Amino acid sequence: MVRRTKEDAQRTRSQILEAAEKAFYKRGMSRTTLSDIAVMAGVSRGAIYWHFSNKADLVQAMLDSLHEPFEALAKASESEDEVDPLGCLRTLLIELFRQVALDPKIRRINEILIHKCEFTDEMCDLRQQRQSACVDCNGRVELSLRNAVHRGQLPPTLNAARAAICLHAYIDGMLGQWLLLPESFSLHDDAERLVDVALDMLRHSPSLCG
Fold first, then answer.
1. Which of 5, 50, 122, 172 has the fewest CB atoms within 10 Å, counting from its CB?
2. What is the DSSP track for 115-161?
């Protein structure tokens, strides 16, 4: 009976997240209420509050699902024992572009985050969560770049902290432009070249050194 209850709870949580994703994509975050999500999920508002403390918590749970497929590669590039940290990072970024292009769910969540997320007073918790996530992401990328420098894959004078911020901004900007104008280029077919543009910047930009 306990197992069945846990399974039911997990099923309800998944229903809520799926409904939230569809509602946010259709109406944007600020115009979507928890009542809207409850109706779409076929549950009560109480069921939502059982799983999530507020709308920001629900959004963060939806965003967290994006990281799971890439966690192994990310950890590999951050490991001092990895002999090809830059190669791991390259593979991760290529897969990121291709999954956004091919997977409707991943594409919708990224579009919600980039183009349909308004940091209103109601969503101030989410803003703080996104700030923390951004700092964490920059730190993890910086660690990967330091490992690549150590392995001789990037210039020894590379400012890894500055380079991590630039790389993060490039990836976000590329995703944002494609989601807005998907017909302007093929994120899937051009994924390798687009990532290599960023890595060439790390290898050859004098402004990223020192």
1. 5
2. HS----GGGHHHHHHHHHHHHHHHHHHHHHHHHHHHTTSS-TTB-HH
Contact 28, 115 (CB under 8 A): no
The pLDDT tens digits for 70-119 are: 566 677 788 889 999 999 999 999 999 999 999 998 899 889 888 887 77
Which residues are CB-contacts of 74 (< 8 A; sequence separation ≥ 6)?
Answer: 67, 92, 140, 144
Q: At what angle do helices 2-27 and 104-115 cross, to 10 degrees?
A: 60
Cα of 114 vs its chain's centroid, Å? 10
Rounded to 10 deg, the angle between the 124-150 and 55-64 helix axes is 30
Q: How far is CA 56 from CA 90, 113, 127, in A?
A: 31, 12, 9
Confidence at residue 1, expressed as pLDDT on a 0 to 100 scale: 45
Q: Name the amino acid, one letter, at 84.
A: D
**DSSP H or E stretch at residue 19:** helix 2-27
With residue 57 as reference, give the H or E element that holds it: helix 55-64
